[in-house]
Inverse folding.
């Protein structure tokens, strides 16, 4: 089924969902060499975000987070796509400069870790 | 969002300019902007290697193929661009820092690394739309200069500089510049640090434009301290003076003292730092007058833009400061330089902003005091 959302960063992506209920900072919370979540107490602690469709509510923390997303992308350790509940400037900036598709405000969508998901940020939908 | 023909052309141009335009437009859409506005000036944060690390450096090198289209200056770097060895900055850090500067230079950015661009030739006129990112200068531009800017992130200010545009939302719209509350200040305010503390107090309490009623008109340099305080503890981007509001709050002696206390964690200081935000020429001259013929016993570091330092060099103050054993340092500041790595543990300063960040990013003990007390502390025999 397809769910409509708001396009923040253009592109298309497909992959396995990795879902968090907590806001995420790419700076300080993720190992930029491996893509592993290193923030203790975060519900994704120990998981690897590389190549995943990363689903989380919104961003938090330092504005350096935008650059951190860019670095992950260049190392091949970035998520393939991002779905936010409602995005904010740091994550949006990072996704756009890195060319990672990002969609938010997707109505009626419920995803759990492991689901196969397709993002289309040309037309503005998520398929599950 | 409605784009002009020229803007449409940029967004289909391919390459870095397209990315920059996409960033400006997408951020505008997130914040509900209807159109873009042309800007006359940009000021970019994300300069210190300590803050942006290799991730930021790589990004800047990739984007450095393109040129900025409006006058653009930079935030302070992690070290003085010349004479960094004298401060004990490590070679590995310096090399990375200079690579960052080189990338900006390649983009046609004016290599003026300061949080007070308005003292260094980047001074917008009232009513002009600009894209600045250093938080204290954003408040200063909106409130003192009457220009219009949101608090831009590093990449978004750079994107604005490359496209000459920013999205029309927030502080670019007159309705968002109106104050919701008046803060009445009737207690005696003795100088820079008091205003800096007032700003820190108000920024913590309120989230949008505030109006101040002062019983005595503050000097321009005190307003700079107020701006920095406001921007440090919260997200205020502007203040006004002399406007009417429905709500009112009185700033009391207790509020002042309690806020000083909040930023007071150390007694024995191994560095005295002044110039957050960067000092104006008059303040440098005033400090030089106090230091004349004396010697400091605790390191006294004064921070200013290279334009202000150049004037102090020509007029003789720089020499007086040097003879007193103090340092007049340019291009960097106590917030973005790696002070902890340089071995400093406790800082005395006249700036609430400097104290706040010394605690959080450099892990230091701090105390805020009036400028004269800071200088006297540095001069006192140990």
């Amino acid at each position: 089924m397809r769910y409509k959302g708001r396009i923040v960063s253009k592109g298309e992506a497909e992959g396995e969902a990795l879902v968090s209920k907590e806001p995420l900072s790419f700076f300080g919370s993720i190992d930029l060499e491996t893509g592993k979540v290193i923030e203790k107490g975060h519900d994704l602690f120990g998981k690897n975000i590389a190549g995943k469709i990363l689903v989380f509510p919104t961003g938090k923390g330092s504005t350096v987070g935008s650059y951190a997303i860019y670095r992950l992308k260049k190392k091949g350790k970035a998520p393939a796509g991002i779905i936010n509940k409602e995005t904010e400037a740091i994550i949006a900036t990072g996704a756009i400069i890195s060319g990672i598709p990002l969609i938010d405000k997707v109505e009626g969508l419920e995803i759990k870790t492991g689901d196969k998901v397709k993002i289309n940020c040309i037309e503005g939908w998520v398929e599950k | 969002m409605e784009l002009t023909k020229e803007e449409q052309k940029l967004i289909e141009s391919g390459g870095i300019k397209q990315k920059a335009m996409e960033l400006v437009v997408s951020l505008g859409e997130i914040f509900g902007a209807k159109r873009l506005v042309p800007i006359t000036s940009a000021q970019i944060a994300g300069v210190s290697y300590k803050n942006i690390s290799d991730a930021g450096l790589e990004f800047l090198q990739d984007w450095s193929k393109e040129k900025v289209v409006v006058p653009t200056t930079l935030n302070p770097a992690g070290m003085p661009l010349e004479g960094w060895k004298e401060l004990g900055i490590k070679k590995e850090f310096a090399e990375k820092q200079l690579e960052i500067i080189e990338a900006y230079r390649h983009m046609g950015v004016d290599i003026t690394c300061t949080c007070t661009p308005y003292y260094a030739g980047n001074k917008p006129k009232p009513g002009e739309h600009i894209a600045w990112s250093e938080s204290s200068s954003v408040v200063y531009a909106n409130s003192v200069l009457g220009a219009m800017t949101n608090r831009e992130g590093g990449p978004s200010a750079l994107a604005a500089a490359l496209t000459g545009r920013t999205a029309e939302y927030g502080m670019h719209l007159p309705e968002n510049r109106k104050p919701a509350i008046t803060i009445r200040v009737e207690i005696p305010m003795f100088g820079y640090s008091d205003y800096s503390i007032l700003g820190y107090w108000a920024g913590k309490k309120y989230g949008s434009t505030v109006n101040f009623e002062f019983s005595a008109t503050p000097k321009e340099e005190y307003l700079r301290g107020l701006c920095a305080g406001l921007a440090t503890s919260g997200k205020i981007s502007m203040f006004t003076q002399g406007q009417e509001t429905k709500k009112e709050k009185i700033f009391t002696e207790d509020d002042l003292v309690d806020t000083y206390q909040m930023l007071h964690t150390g007694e024995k200081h191994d560095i005295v730092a002044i110039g957050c935000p960067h000092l104006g020429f008059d303040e440098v001259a005033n400090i030089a007058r106090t230091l004349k013929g004396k010697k400091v016993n605790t390191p006294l570091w004064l921070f200013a833009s290279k334009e202000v330092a150049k004037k102090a060099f020509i007029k003789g103050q720089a020499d007086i400061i040097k003879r007193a054993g103090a340092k007049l340092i340019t291009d960097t500041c106590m917030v973005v330089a790696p002070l902890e790595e340089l071995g400093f543990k406790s800082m005395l300063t006249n700036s609430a902003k400097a104290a706040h960040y010394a605690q959080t990013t450099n892990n230091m003990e701090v105390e805020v005091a009036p400028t004269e007390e800071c200088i006297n502390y540095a001069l006192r025999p140990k």
Notes: Helices of chain A lie at 65-74, 89-98.
